[in-house]
Design brief:
The chain is mainly α and about 110 residues long. The chain contains 7 helices and no strands. About 60% of the residues lie in helices and about 0% in strands. Helix 2 packs across helix 3 (about 25-35).
């Protein structure tokens, strides 16, 4: 779990506190952070919820540690959802490119 240690430290939470609050062994948290083992899906969800982040961030698939909130995905246009999902997974340089390009298209 590529970003577990980073987000845990950012939130000022020790391995011990995270383990205690989620009823997980501290050794397991350490192993997750070192990439020696991986949590099952239920534990992964618990960790993401506890740290108020996304599973994608914990796994290193996206760079933004804050999940998208207050969006009603069920009512969202499928194309809008697809664009947002793809955009979230880009690095900052590529996001800048997308913003520039989208503004250029909009001005046409």
């Amino acid at each position: 779990m590529k970003n577990l240690k980073r987000i845990r430290q950012k939130r000022n939470i020790t391995q011990s506190k995270l383990a205690t609050d989620l009823n997980i062994k501290q050794e397991s948290i350490s192993a997750y952070e070192q990439g020696k083992s991986y949590p099952n899906i239920e534990t992964l969800i618990k960790i993401a919820d506890y740290l108020n982040t996304s599973i994608d961030y914990l796994l290193g698939r996206i760079e933004n540690d804050t999940p998208i909130k207050d969006l009603n995905i069920k009512e969202m246009n499928p194309k809008t959802y697809r664009i947002l999902n793809n955009f979230i997974m880009l690095n900052d340089a590529k996001k800048d490119d997308v913003i520039w390009y989208s503004e250029a298209i909009r001005k046409k």
